[in-house]
Amino acid sequence: MPELPEVEVTRLSFADRIAGARIEAVTIGKPLRWPLGCPPQQLEGQHVLDVRRRGKYLLLDLSGGLLLIHLGMSGSLNFGTEFSAPGRHDHFDMLTSLGTLRLHDPRRFGAVVYTSGESDPAAQKLLGRLGVEPLSESFDAAAFHQALKLRKTAIKQVLLGGEAVVGVGNIYASEALFLAGIRPTTKAFRISKPRAALLHRAIQQVLTQAVAKGGSTLRNFSNAHGMAGYFQLEAMVYDRAGLPCRICGVPIKTMRQGQRSTFYCVRCQKS
DNA sequence: AGGGTGACCTGTCGGC
DNA sequence: TGCCGACAGGTCACCC
User: Fold this and answer.
1) Which CATH number fits domain A141-264: 1.10.287.70, 3.40.50.300, 1.20.1250.20, 1.10.8.50?
2) Looking at chain A, which residues constitute the CATH 3.20.190.10 domain(s)?
3) A168, A208, A223, A245: which could join A265 in a potential S-S bond, CB 3.0 to 4.6 Å?
4) Tens of pLDDT along chain A (271 residues)?
C-alpha cells in the first residue's frame, strides 16, 4: 500500500497531535519484519519530540532515541484516543499521554525499530543507502541524469531501487514514466539529459499530487485518522491493463519486471 | 559490482 | 459453493 505519498500523508495526519506526548506503555503483537531492538519498557517515560520521514520510513524523534516505522506492503497507522483491544493484525501499540499510536499490518512486512539515533548502526543499516528525497531541493535534474547514466538496467527497476531517488514505488514508477513518455524497459543509461529532466519533473509532479490528494485509495489505504484518501487517485496507467489510454485511447499494456507488474501505453511511451 | 531471484506473510479475487 | 493458484503498495539476503 504505502509509497512515499501515503507515508507522508500518514505523517501529516498525526505528527502535530503526537508531538510532546509522553510514552506510557508499549505493547507488541506478532513479530514484524525486524525485532524492536530493545525491551518495550525502554520507550516508556520518553517523549515524542517530532515525526519526520525519510523515504518510506517514518522517524519518530524520542527524547532518548529514534523510533523507525516502516509500513511495508500492508501497514497503516492510527493515532487516537478511542481504543479497543488490539485486533488480529494490530502488532504495535504505543500508549501515550495524548493518544495511542497503533500499527495495523496484516502481512507483517512492516517494522518498528528503536535505535539510539540516526548514526546508530541499526539506523544506518536501514537508512544509509537511501537516495535523494524526491520532494526536496536536493533532488536535482542534472544529478539525476548522472545517476541514471551509471545504471544498465531498465529505468523502472532503477526507480524502484531507491538509490537514484527514494520513495517511488510500483504505482508511481509506472505513473511517472507514463507522464514522462518513457518506456519502462528503456535502459537507464540510454536516457538523454532532456528526457531525464522530464522524468525528474514527472516524479515530483506525481508524488506531489498524490500527497495533495491524500494518498492513493487503491485497496485500503487510510491515514492515521482512519480516513481514506480524500480523493480517488486518478491513475493514468497503473492497474488499467486493457483499458483505453486516457491520452490516446490505445489499450494500456501490462508486463512483469523483476516480478512486479508494470503498466504502460505503447503509443505514448515509445522509447 | 551489479543484476536477477527467492523469501518474508496474509488476504482477496478470478477461474474451473 | 469450494478449492487453488496468482497476485498485492516493499525490501533484504543471497546467488552467479
Assistant:
1) 1.10.8.50
2) 4-127
3) A245
4) 699 999 999 999 999 999 999 999 999 999 999 999 999 999 999 999 999 999 999 999 999 999 999 999 999 999 999 889 999 999 999 999 999 999 999 999 999 999 999 999 999 999 999 999 999 999 999 999 999 999 999 999 999 999 999 999 999 999 999 999 999 999 999 999 999 999 999 999 999 999 998 866 554 555 666 555 433 467 999 999 999 999 999 999 999 999 999 999 999 999 9
The residue behind cell 519533473 is: A201
Q: Is A2 an active-site residue?
A: yes
Query: Which nucleotide's C1' is closest to A71 (Cα)?
Result: C10
A58, A70, A138, A141, A248 from A269: Cα distances, Å: 34, 33, 28, 20, 11
Q: Which of A60, A71, A64, A61 is nearest to A33 (CA)?
A: A71
Whether A3 is catalytic is: yes
Query: Which residue approaches B6 most closely, CA to C1'?
Result: A259
For the question of residue A184 being annotated catalytic, the response is no
Shortest CA–C1' contact from A174: which nucleotide? C9
Question: Which residues make up the CATH 1.10.8.50 domain(s) of chain A?
Answer: 141-264
Q: Strand C closer than 7 Å to the CB of A171?
A: yes
Query: Is the pTM value of this prediction over 0.85?
Result: yes
* Rounded distance between C-alpha atoms, residue A271 and residue A268, angstroms: 9
Is A234 part of the annotated catalytic residue set?
no
CATH number for the domain whose boundaries are A4-127: 3.20.190.10
The Å distance, CA of A139 to C1' of C8, is 30
